[in-house]
Amino acid sequence: MTLAGKTAVVTGSNSGIGLGIVRELARAGADVLLNSFTDRDEDHALAAEIAQEFGVEARYVAADMSKADQCRALVEQAGACDILVNNAGIQHVAPIDEFPQEKWDAIIAINLSSAFHTTAAALPMMRKAGWGRVVNIASAHGLTASPYKSAYIAAKHGIVGLSKTTALECAGQGITCNAICPGYVLTPLVEAQIPDQMKAHNMDRDTVVKEVMLQRQPSKEFATTEQIGGTTVFLCSPAADQITGTTISVDGGWTAL
Ligand code: NAD
């Protein structure tokens, strides 16, 4: 399975799931464009490491996914965009009546509207090439809800709807669009929460992971960034040519409950 000759743009990819997706796409031979809102030497060094490790072209482009014009400029700067992965996302937890308005606006902009803008910029390129893949990173929270995460859950349900509409508008054009719905994924951000949770619940690592953090994940195992990357690569493979407008859960059984 080779993605040689394809160019992938992955938003929010200097850490966590986005970086895992970049690594698996590069392992499959795709040239990759990494992104976040920062413009540090280490961001560009990360792209150079990927290029070196996998023998592909890799570039880092800073763009703030809360800004419509920067979303569109990111795709245009890529020059080519055969694979678009909308992954950038943030979270805030508070009851609806106390939820700060600016947090609501930021989450909707970064987790949902950015995907509209990047997709709008990418589709003409994909149509010209006669092939394209849009992969939106939603969440188990794109299919189910939890209290205190109103903006995140609204955005993730929204991106599932956007994925379906994109799929219908592109049907029969060699372009597919799907949403991956991860459960809890072990990213550096999640790993960093474990010591605090251990202290708060007075539990050892294994117990806090299984009983607190993975309470809703029946497998009692985190998904990994490699698995989300592998699912993305699968969606870019010929086996997935007729998979469009749907969701793929990578959640250890969360949404089967
Ligand atoms: P993370 O914080 O490691 O990654 C988020 C990425 O988005 C980072 O690269 C960050 O720099 C970038 N980002 C944030 N604001 C941005 C902005 N304004 N412009 C550009 N980039 C921006 O977190 P993660 O866990 O890897 O999350 C990645 C995606 O996966 C998110 O959409 C998240 O909702 C989703 N997700 C995560 C989990 C999980 O358990 N970790 C589960 C389900 C879904």
Low-pLDDT residue spans: none
Mean pLDDT, to the nearest integer, reads 97
Major sheet size, sense and barrel closure:
7 strands, parallel
CA-CA gap between termini? 34 Å
Domains, number: 2
Structural class: alpha/beta
For the record, the CATH class of the largest domain is Alpha Beta
Give the overall shape: globular
Strand order of the largest sheet: 3-2-1-4-5-6-7
Order of helices and strands: EHEHEHEHEHEHHHE
Q: CATH superfamily of the largest domain, called what?
A: NAD(P)-binding Rossmann-like Domain
Based on the coordinates given, report the CATH architecture of the largest domain: 3-Layer(aba) Sandwich
Question: Which ligands appear in the coordinates?
Answer: nicotinamide-adenine-dinucleotide
Instruction: Supply the number of helical segments.
Output: 8
Radius of gyration: 18 Å
Could you tell me the CATH topology label of the largest domain.
Rossmann fold
- How much helicity do the residues have? 40-55%
What this model shows, in words?
It is a single chain. This protein has 257 residues and is α/β, with parallel strands linked by helices. It folds into 2 domains: 213 residues, Rossmann fold; 37 residues. The protein is built from 8 helices and 7 strands; from the N terminus they run βαβαβαβαβαβαααβ. It has a 7-stranded parallel sheet, with helices on both faces. Helix 1 packs across helix 8. The two termini are 34 Å apart. Nicotinamide-adenine-dinucleotide binds next to helix 1, helix 4 and helix 6.
